[in-house]
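Q&A log
Question type: sequence-to-structure
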Amino acid sequence: MTSVITKSALVLAACASMNAFAGPSAKAPAPAPEPENNALFDTLGATLEVGYDTRYYFRGLYFADNTVWTGLNISIPLTEQLSLGLGALYTTTVETTVPDTTGLNNGVGDFDYSELDLSASLTYDAGFAKFGLVYTHYEFFDTFSGSVFGASAGQDEGALTGADEVGLTMATSVGPVNLYGGYFYDFRIGGQYFEVGADLPIEITPWLSIVPAVKTGYALNYYTDGVNPNAHPSGFSHVIPSVSAPIKLTKTATLTPYVAYNISLGARHQLNAQDSEFFGGVKLGVTF
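Response status: OK
Response body:
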């Protein structure tokens, strides 16, 4: 970019010098006509992502191992401040090993988990912060707790095949730190969830950044019934520090590996297979 600006400045300077020596009769060249834009949209405002995670944790709750996923998000501007968002995310486990309680499969259970999330949102940019209203439908193809040999691994809430949720979100920045929070209400179980987080992007090179982040949440009667009778129905769910490294491959493609550490708190101690553990993954995102 600097090279282009420098060359342009030299060309303009040369043209000015030629005009000065040519006298008052010299005429400046006519500007080139701007190219016509015949496209309906300059960009679609869409992001397509694919990824892999060694563990799938959602709001501090463990779901499966070795999951792959793909997601599509579209942002449609309605006014200068208001935009409509549409999203879809599909997640499935490639291989999750669980004990075989039937004794028919060499001690290894045939565990399946897959999920589809469909969302619609409105985001208002107030300048100092962005506020959002989001609706999400969750479809659990193998039930909320997954299935072993075709049977749900959970009961009651753990055996649900779908849920609907509405949420209020907020995102802002304080200096270089990005802050975000949200409140979510699940209509299916009447549970509530609060979430706050922060991250600090650190640019290493024009194409590489390091982003330390932390997130925590508080659950109110949020997915404990039928999963583990000893679990606390309400309380802090988890703390999850993480570090990601977005690598800008092209103008539109970014590869992001990450490592994280899920620390289970009161509302998750009795629910997760591992109380606290490291996990990681990678995603590729393309905007168009």
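Response note: Residues 1-28, 102-107 have pLDDT under 50 and may be disordered.
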